[in-house]
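Here we describe the complex-level prediction in full. Unlike the single-chain runs in Section 2.1, the four entities below were treated as one system.
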Amino acid sequence: MANSTTEQEAGAIRRRNERAILQAAEGAFACHGYRGASLQDIARRAGLPKSNVLYYMGSKRRLYVRLLERMMSRWNAILDNISPDDDPVEVISAFIRAKIRLSRSHPEGSRLFASEILGGAPFLQEYLQGDLRDWVESRAVVLRQWAERGLIDPVNPVWLIFLIWSSTQHYADFETQVLGITGRQSLDDDDLEDITQFLIQVVVKGCGIRRPAAGATPPDS
Amino acid sequence: MANSTTEQEAGAIRRRNERAILQAAEGAFACHGYRGASLQDIARRAGLPKSNVLYYMGSKRRLYVRLLERMMSRWNAILDNISPDDDPVEVISAFIRAKIRLSRSHPEGSRLFASEILGGAPFLQEYLQGDLRDWVESRAVVLRQWAERGLIDPVNPVWLIFLIWSSTQHYADFETQVLGITGRQSLDDDDLEDITQFLIQVVVKGCGIRRPAAGATPPDS
DNA sequence: TTAATTCTTGACCATTCGGTCAGTTTTATC
DNA sequence: GATAAAACTGACCGAATGGTCAAGAATTAA
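The structure predicted for the assembly as a whole is:
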């Protein structure tokens, strides 16, 4: 294969091919699920022979797990810490915004995750019942403290978190439905900003989320 | 095969076997998607030889389409008509409630639908851009009229419909995630009622949905 | 009882699946 | 240019895929 740039740092070929394979596989797994996706199809999308895919990834399972881990690390990156002293409106708004951004920047990874959950999460059970559960519980504690201080209605924190997850995830997972119904070819940045504002408004107003009284407990900004 | 009840109306065997196959196939397709599910697995779930599945259903594709159509008819059943004169709070509440009930009564059909959309809706494109789009548009008209009369904040009706769809669908599609994170084995009726109340409250309050002034335009009940 | 219809199923088919491997080519190092 | 390491890939394997078919079993209709 003709390679125009002969001089490049070591491992460049590996990096480039792995990137191509991972991207191709993400699309295939997102579209057809773990079982439904085939290495042949992934190889074709990546423009490589099937043997080459296995040379780099070892096996279909390893490739799939690697993609899941990549997606979960993206997910973890937006699960930032919050403190009871933070401004609830800011925290919730930032969370919704980050989640929408993730759905937009990595729609296929998002669908890959959804497909994994739909199939009963055979590879992510541990994560769901471990790290992610702990994260949800820690946020629930903060939300309850906000409720005690009258900064939010006494809603079930877990249902609220699920509401935000589902309503934002929707725009990646059900993109086909959204486009089909709205008659668009794609959603542009303005649409996404509009959706983000709408979700923030409904959640903040719907849960009675308020900013803390000025000077009471400064949100450290 | 021993058949205890010899005397029964014609077609009883067919009905019973088709039921078993459809149920088995719904679970398999929901779990693994169209490509990922295998007739062998479906036959095993139904307790029949593979040949028998093909005898009744013709082909994998026909079986899949039949399941999709069955699910869409359930879906259509809750897309009832509304009039601008109806009480917005009642309409939205009833819609959320019906949608939650559908997710609960037919979780695997719900996941089957989700899997179809995730895969790009190869079999449902027409439905999405046709009947469903028309339905959404007709509801959007009513919602805008409500907004003009001050019965709801001027939110984008389509985003509101998507919000209700996604947040309710979540409890079927992401059941594994919900159970893993809450540490439950299953969600009981009380949980679902709690979730329903939460979603109704957030949406109604969040969108500023109000009941029409008494006697103004009676909701015909 | 007989004849027709429906139902059942194992054997079989071409194709594709994930995966192995040996052998070749390309690249990096000296 | 020589050597070693990395990259590449066609051929191949056993298993599983969706689907066909013919022949037999069970049920129904006459």
